[in-house]
Design brief:
Layout lengths: L17 E9 L3 E2 L3 H11 L10 E2 L7 E2 L2 E2 L7 E2 L6 E7 L3 H4 L6 E4 L2 E12 L6 E7 L6 H14 L6 E11 L4 E10 L3 H10 L13 E2 L3 H5 L1
Antiparallel strand pairs: 1-7, 1-9, 2-6, 3-7, 4-5, 8-9, 10-12, 10-13, 11-12
């Protein structure tokens, strides 16, 4: 008989080539559609961001609901960030110290002030379920076409998607045009696939927060 109680296998480690800088912020109100103004304000301080592979600016996320408040959908609506709301900027490792230069600045987002406080460095996740709030879907008419295109792009990256869930359409407004996006969730990824997707992103406009993935709860809970 051969009996081994402990599993000596080591879990895969998540590389630190790309990380999220997570900034505490002070902000009373924020436009619902703030991706463009946020990206422009950040790039005034970090001008290299749009051209840096692996870098991007997450849109500032405010909870969907709470204490009787429901997140609005009107284009001109305002969000009310809480003290726990954060600004996340994804950067490659060699840009960490430069990225921290955001600390102490006040960003003007269409007349709304966002004070940037201290930053912490957060590693990417090895979670098998990841989620992007915005994937650019220009040129595709429906969810089926979007998913088919995402499968092609993922396979080109060496990722074989098993489960994907596409969300409703969101419009990001820029001075040049309106950009159509959808949310996208992937589940049952291997550690390597999950990390690769977070490091490389999917699609275009990373500087607007598009194509950036974060860990998420199980896809079954979302479907239910």
């Amino acid at each position: 008989m051969y009996w081994q109680e402990e599993d000596d296998r080591t879990a895969p480690t998540v590389p630190d080539d790309v990380v999220d800088l997570v900034f505490a912020i002070a902000c009373k109100t924020l436009p619902l559609d703030h991706a463009y103004s946020l990206s422009q304000a950040v790039q005034e301080i970090l001008p290299w961001l749009a051209e840096e592979e692996g870098a991007g600016v997450h849109a500032i996320h405010v909870a969907e609901s709470g204490n009787g408040w429901i997140r609005p959908n009107e284009a001109n609506a305002l969000l009310h960030p809480s003290r726990r709301t954060k600004l996340r900027v994804r950067v490659p490792k060699h840009r960490i110290e430069q990225g921290k230069r955001l600390t102490g600045n006040t960003l003007d987002l269409d007349g709304h002030s966002v004070i940037i406080k201290e930053a912490t460095v957060k590693s990417l996740s090895d979670h098998p379920v990841v989620f992007s709030r915005y994937i650019v879907t220009e040129g595709f008419d429906n969810e089926t076409e979007v998913l088919e295109e995402m499968v092609k792009q993922l396979k080109a990256m060496g990722i074989k998607p098993k489960k994907m869930l596409c969300g409703t359409e969101t419009i990001i407004t820029t001075p040049d045009k309106e950009i159509k996006t959808r949310s996208l969730m992937l589940a049952d990824l291997s550690v390597e696939e999950s990390v690769t997707l977070q490091m490389k992103g999917l699609g275009s406009h990373r500087w607007l927060g598009c194509g950036l993935f974060i860990p998420h709860k199980d896809i079954k809970e979302v479907k239910e």
